[in-house]
Amino acid sequence: SNLGEILRLITEDVIVSSKVRPLPEEWKDLQGSITKSVDDSLKRLNLDVLDIIQIHNHLTEEEEARFGMSVSFDRLMHMAEILRDVQSMGKVRFIGFTGLGEPGLIHKVIESKVFDTVQVYYNLLQTSAGYKLPEINGVENYSQLLSKTADLGIGTIAIRVLAGGILTDSP
């Protein structure tokens, strides 16, 4: 890929991450699906090791919600075990997950200390991961998730920083 070619030319230290999003039809062989996804990323990027691999499924009580992209806490924990296996093979340095879905479950995952990083939804319109905000019906409240990750030594990566284009007036 073009990015893989460019990465070969860069001499500065860069952190390269990729993501996996196993869909329900891949759940029968999660080990194979996740390992293949990591291997495919390494090949595309012309790398021997990824700095971070992240599970990019939403976290919900009811699996397959959100167009089949959601997983339960238990399935996410199983995926984490698989990523730890991939890590022990020397293919990735750190494992993470995307902190989208049900905030209470996201906090439960953070408290498990299984992951090294979490992608946190944070922008000028959605600041609840950083600040104590009142509960508003229909609005996800991430209940100062950033403080919890800092206290537990878990790395954070801000996502949706431009609120899906709303803050730039372009999608």
Describe what this molecule looks like in 3D.
By secondary structure, the protein is α/β, with parallel strands linked by helices. It is 36% helix and 19% strand. The strands form two sheets. A five-stranded parallel sheet has the order 1-2-5-6-7. The protein has a two-stranded parallel ribbon with strand order 3-4. α2 (30-45) crosses α4 (73-88). It is globular and about 45 Å long.
Instruction: Write down the overall mean pLDDT.
Output: 88
Biggest sheet overview: 5 strands, parallel
Tell me the series of helices and strands, N- to C-terminal. HEHEEHEHEHEHE
Proportion in β-strands: 15-25%
Count of beta strands = 7
Helical amount: 25-40%
* Gap between N and C termini: 25 Å
CA radius of gyration is 17 Å
Taken from the alpha-carbon principal axes, the silhouette is: globular
Strands of the widest sheet, in order across it, are 1-2-5-6-7
Q: What oligomeric arrangement do these chains adopt?
A: single chain
Task: Provide keyphrases for this structure.
single chain, 171 residues, alpha/beta, 5-stranded parallel beta sheet, two-stranded parallel sheet, 6 helices, globular
What's the short version?
The protein has 171 residues and is of the alpha/beta class. It has six helices and seven strands. The protein is globular.
